[in-house]
Fold this protein.
Amino acid sequence: MPRNLRRSQRSRNCAYNLCLFTWADTRPQARTTRSLAVRHIQRRARCTTSTAALYAVLAGFPTDGDA
């Protein structure tokens, strides 16, 4: 009994004309970058970003970038 071994055609992106920089420009930009301390305080205290940033500064945690 012969088997049908043809694979179904999968839809693929046209990668041959896709420039990496063009693709990167179409990606949504990240909102504001919050430091790890601000994100942690915001998650634990359920407060706004500005309040969490104030708490982090007052506690002495680094708040610049994502360090």
Summary: Residues 41 and 55 are 8 Å apart (CA to CA). The two ends are 63 Å apart (CA to CA). Residues 49-59 form the longest helix (11 residues). Helices lie at 20-26, 36-45, 49-59.
